[in-house]
Amino acid sequence: MEWHSQLIQYLATGITTGAIYALVALGFTIIYNSTEIINFAQGEFVMLGGMIAASLLAMAGMPMWAAIMLAIALATLLGVIFEQLAIRPVKNPSVMNLIIITIGGSILLKGAAMIIWGKDDRPLRSFSSSQPLHIFGAAVTPQSLWVMAGTLVAVILLHFFYEYTITGKALRACAYNKKAARLCGISVERMVLFSFALSAAIGALAGILIAPITFTSYDVGTMLGLKGFCAAIFGGLGSNPGAVLGGLVIGALESLSAGYISSGYKDAVAFLIMLLVLYFRPTGILGKRSEKV
Amino acid sequence: MKRDWSLWAGLAVLIFLLPLFVKSPYYFSVLIFIAIYGMIVLGLTMLMGYAGQISLGHAAFFGLGAYFSSILTLYLHLNPWLAMAAGLVGTIVIAFLLGIPTLKLHGHYLAMATLGLGIVLQIIFKEEVKLTGGPTGLTGIPYLKAFGISFSNDRAYYLLCWIFMLVLLGLSINLVHSRTGRALRAISQNQVAAGTLGISVNWLKLMVFALSAGYASIAGSLYAHYLAFVNPSPFGFMVSVKLVAMVVIGGSASLWGALLGTALLVSLPEFLTRLQDYEMVIYGAILILVMVFAPRGLTGIAAKIFDLLRGRTRGENAQAA
Amino acid sequence: MLKLHEISKSFGGVHALEGVSFELKRGEILGLIGPNGAGKTTLFNVISGILPTDRGKVELEGKNITGFASHLIARKGIFRTFQNLAIFDEMTVLENLLVGNHLLGRAGVFAAFFKTPWERKEEARIRSRALGLLKDIGLADSTNHPARSLPFGKLRMLELGRALCPNPRLLLLDEPAAGLNQRETEELAGFLAGLRQKEITMIVIEHDMSLVMELSDRVVVLDQGRKIAEGAPREIQQNKAVLTAYLGEEDWIKTLDKTHA
Predict the structure, then answer these.
(1) What is the mean pLDDT of each run of 10 residues along chain A (293 residues)?
(2) Which residues in chain C have Cβ-Cβ distances shorter than 8 Å to B314?
(3) Which of 1.10.10, 1.10.3470, 3.30.70, 2.60.40 is the CATH number of A3-280?
(4) Buried b (16+ CB within 10 A) or exposed e, B81-109
């Protein structure tokens, strides 16, 4: 293959996975913004999205779009339940408590998934055809384009939501100053609930988009969640554009290093980037400088 | 302090009497694992519970100890005890160096940095095949020998591990009840104030981090010589999480909590062998339930019960003051 | 003994401190006053090594201590209390004082691990000093009670006691009377007067004017990060700039009338 085709190939793969990381990172950022909680269970919602969609599709007569919508809805519901049962009841949580609770939640969801669906990989049909397209000599599957498009749409919708709707502005208010938001009549509790729901939905979307490419199984959530977290840190916890940037950068770098350097250390790339950011610029590339680290 | 030493003595007696009543190698095996993980959790408790620093990557130090021992005894034919000591020093140095930039972080950021370090280290274990044997690992690790006894059966190894545990526990009890131990607790409660009282906060954080890595390293060496085989899988994120769970469930600010938490979480899967599929669900549920209902863990509950029995409540304390 | 020269500190666009300079003689008690936001606590944070200064120097007995980390400042004998109380809540009253005596010992980790005789001796010394101090501050009854069970007034005393543990050369008190009622404030004043007898050098930030005027040998006034006055308590009370800072332009005339009436 020509060197430029190879480069484009790697970039295409990188941006595709990067888009998924971006969505996962957005899920972290949304919750972090309104609660300062890092939701370690985020990755599991990604997994659930794909798994539920795959199960629904296996049911006779279920059209693709219905399965997707329903899967997202169910995952969102689970996100709500998770917040109510695991987050809300905790009084005076310390950082350690919250980390452990969300980790516990992630293990629980993963274990439940394993019981319900077993350990096998589940295929999810591509949204359109699975014939690769050839762009500048690189083979790109249509599903990759779906992933990029889906992510782009989600990011744009999110942007409009935050800028132009009352709820969105209320969420931003909570991010800036919870007490002040409360004094303005915003129900912080409801905003927290909403953040978890929104995060779960975005996570589920990510899982559904990527499942046709990488297959889905009960344990895909862990790594995706962790790498999405690396992306969020890279961009700056609390910054939505940062999350998207982080996802794309990490996805691209991961793919490029796997192609040009070593594929064994591929998984380490995201974490090494995160460590570098934490050591040299902990608030992230686009994060608020003043944040206490 | 006296109470801790009495408990220690009681534990020592129990350890030595147990083999008179227990014969099955299976039980010894479980007890060996409780000792091994218990050592790591002991160190981690000093780091998390006493100094207030979170680590989500401690399984990596466990792995470093195991790999140091394995590689040095297999390739360099070093005496296993020397290898263990070398591994201890090596791990402490590595932890110290990694700790310098890492411990400048707090809260979530510290947690994520330790998580990242742990994952990267495990990937190194998997990828450096020539050194570590890669995913298949290393086999044929020699047994530990001393005074002519080869520690190759479970009963002997049980005693060996628990002797190590008793020693480490004793050292920890001393540390916790010393000026340094108080300084660590001060750091976890108010780092700024601690600094203004002359406590070298950065140095102590590094020191306890390296120390806890050292404990994990010894555990790793014992692990390697027990199984005579190591591969990367016991040294990953999930195990680091389980270690943190053991700290927290026992009650993070208590050395005895460390032992309790370990004993509980190591033996639990053994009791639930029939429910093996449910292990993850139960684990996750336990973590959530303990954090929601008993954030101070088992020792917190024990302390509350103790207070109730003594008739002392917070209100009475306030009145007396 | 202490010399501050052109201390300046900004946070983003806010000039918390701007060219603050003054000197302090040994055994002196300096009152540091000024309206809220004047930068008094920031100044303490700079001196005690919690915040670095952007410019300027801090000298202790002629030696430069600018930018030293807080534990090194403590080693030089400078100790402080905090405006919002920095008690170790999860420790007992005695343990708080034991930590206060941290610098009395030098045994490190290994000595602690093996409980060497050296460590034991140091620990005994730390303990006896702490118990002694406990009596001095009147909290001997609560020795083993958790610190958080103490009422607010006693917590202030505890923090003061903790800062006194290591025989400080210089004591920085940040609003020691804040939140105390009349009786507690009088007890505090008495205690501080006792300290003055022992010739402990102090800088005291306070809003309670009568306490400041009664206690201080000299007063420095800050407003919006700048030093606007310095002198004996009597002079400061009548200083135009000071009254303006606190009361606003017109009201100082009324106050002056009152004091002359």
Answers:
(1) 79 90 92 85 92 84 83 92 86 79 91 88 77 76 84 88 84 75 77 90 91 84 91 88 92 90 86 92 75 52
(2) 146, 149
(3) 1.10.3470
(4) eebbbbbbebbbebbbebbeebbbbbbbb
